[in-house]
Specification:
Chains A, B: It comes from Streptomyces lunalinharesii. Chains A, B: This is Helix-turn-helix domain-containing protein. The structure is a homodimer. By secondary structure, chain A is an alpha+beta fold. Chain A has helices spanning about 15-20, 25-35, 50-60, 85, 90-95, and strands spanning about 40, 65-70, 75-80. In chain A, helix 1 (about 15-20) runs antiparallel to helix 3 (about 50-60). Chain B binds a DNA duplex through helix 3 and strand 2.
Chain lengths: ~100, ~100
DNA sequence: ATCGATGTTCGTCGATAATCGATGAACTGT
DNA sequence: ACAGTTCATCGATTATCGACGAACATCGAT
């Protein structure tokens, strides 16, 4: 697996971040990651094809939200801690609002 | 002018709201509206065609963020106060992060 | 060297987005 | 009645999105 691209946080726009968070599947990924740990990409079972999940992971990386660390044939995904320095409070606010009825 | 549609806030999803806020032109509109007053739709000069601005206004309405009140041939636009009850803190957070460099 | 597992990339599809100019609808003022 | 203003809508264009399967790359294990 080629090492994925992680943009500098300073080049990530608010539109990029909000665009990444506007999709419910991607928010579901982020919600899992808020435990602060790394998760295997393959452990997300969100009802989409593997290639689709890979696409969403790319969007999250480009939005500066997540970090992907290849490990052999697998891939560990985690939140980028610096994201909250770039956009303070955004993740907490968005995820806090992401209740059952608001989710779709 | 036909009266524009304003969705019930309970039917507006977080994805709708975030999608509306993900566009910099629309955030520029919202930023103006945070003075709490009504503004004429024609007073926004954001460098896009009139029809394009109308399109953005529609997105903001559909995201539950703004209210449009026709008045003769013109249209007064304002924030929907209930939006903050539906998504508490979202507008304040997003607009607070919308600095010059993050804007695009 | 081959195989299976895991993700990424590619090509494609239908749907939606953002933009524009042109047209239409509704109102105002003369 | 007519002309002008203001905004919405239409039609077209171009781009992007989310989805899929298929193909590809990389690695570990056999």
């Amino acid at each position: 697996m080629r090492a994925p691209d992680h943009p500098q946080l300073s080049t990530v726009s608010l539109s990029d971040a909000l665009g990444a968070l506007a999709d419910p599947t991607r928010r579901a990924v982020v919600r899992v990651l808020t435990d602060g740990r790394e998760h295997l990409a393959g452990d997300f079972d969100l009802g989409v094809a593997q290639s689709t999940l890979s696409h969403h992971m790319k969007k999250l990386r480009q939005g500066g939200i997540t970090h992907s660390r290849p490990d052999g044939t697998r891939c560990w995904v985690s939140l980028r801690p610096e994201f909250d320095e770039r956009f303070p409070g955004l993740l907490r606010t968005v995820l806090g609002l992401d209740t059952e009825q608001a989710r779709s």
